[in-house]
Amino acid sequence: MTAFVPLAHARVDAPVAVGEPGARTAGELLGDARIVAGRLPAPAPGSEVLVVCGDRYHVAVAALGAWLRGHAVALPPNAQPEAVRSLAARPGVVALLHDAGFADAHDLRPWLTGQVPEDMSEIAWPEALPAGRPVATVYTSGSTGEHQPCAKTAGQLLGEARALAETFALGAGDVVLATVPPHHIYGLLFSVLAPLAAGAAFSRETPLHAETVAAVARRIGATALVSAPAHLRGMTVLGRGELPPLRRVFSSGAPLPRATALELLAGQGLAVTEVYGSSETGGIGWRRIEEGASDMFSEPAWTPLPGVRVAASGEGRLLLDSPFLPPDAARPYPGEDRVEVAEDGRFYLRGRLDGVVKIAGKRVAIAEVEQRLLALPRVADAAVVATESAGARGHELVAAVVLREPAGEAAEAIAGLRHALLQWFDPVVVPRRIRLVPALPREASGKLTRRRLLALLGLAQEER
Q1: 203: part of which helix (H) or strand (E)?
Q2: What is the pLDDT of residue 138?
Q3: I need a labelling partner for 142 at 20 to 30 A (CA). Which of 78, 184, 273, 412 fits?
Q4: Cα dist. 223→24, 72, 204, 293 in Å?
């Protein structure tokens, strides 16, 4: 079994990267990858090149160069200096490539002004890699703890990239813009590898604020946007026509609030394709809010990605079989979500197994409380967490809320939020503590870890 390699049959003049600091073609990418391969040390069993680059073109160059030389790549969960130093000290890491000014590391940018080494210029670009060859280590989001490494083989990573390109009909002429970083598995696949697999181009930039996203999208002629719920929620302020026509808008990393999807659909005509998966499992399924959707809390079914089969255990636990799972993973692979599977193979998510708590004897889905908060017009962002209670309740909910406009009297604003939630929930379910904050400590991918949320709420010491 083998896995395809990006650009094996690409036209040398085909565009692969656009935007600042300049456009690059497939031929230039292949040449730059050979330069990187020629500068890297010889491979050894288990050797990795740590890549800390914000420019997607540099990520692509580093990955292809490392693969050509015989190494895997490691992509950090973030670019914080201590996290990078810790990963650079891992056994097997033979080089650290960056474009952000790290000391005691190799800045990729000066390398790319040189010539292809003679010993690399004649090496044919491989058409395929062994499917079982390790090619990357990515990191989980760390939603309930520390980031954990996930090794990916060529069959998993490159096979998924090709499947995504085919499923979502990406092709030559498409230009993919992303608001999420390229080091997370979602950003790596959707904004680097899938475009390369499809013969499409990707933006080198990662704009975040709505007006900047719109300006970059217009400048580069973007046809697809790869984003996250927190970022898309900010884009609802844009008027119709501020974004160029987009064939696809992707969202992943967290549940997409129905209110955000419907606002983008009504205000800008953008139907969001929501993607479900994880670092450990790869992509699992997708769904899209189409024209005519009007129920804020309707639940469209998820369609499995090609080759993916979803089943449910007796307790409703997700049971997964997928070509994107690790080769040695149990099959079926037990997930942490509850699902309901339809006769046609599509499925519905029914919350996380660990996302339902009992409060005074009532079963409460934390995600539902969070979704109701996010649906309120005044709320720009929100997160809800359950903590253990010393009383008879067993648990209590605590919420952090970001308002769209200045709150005035905080007590009055909080009372208004509680009143709105009481239209949906029994009083015992409504969060006992609601804290208004200027922003949630989300990572660049839009993820929010429980540890950082508890610290924001002043509850870190209450965890047992």
Answers
A1: strand 201-203
A2: 95
A3: 273
A4: 18, 31, 15, 23
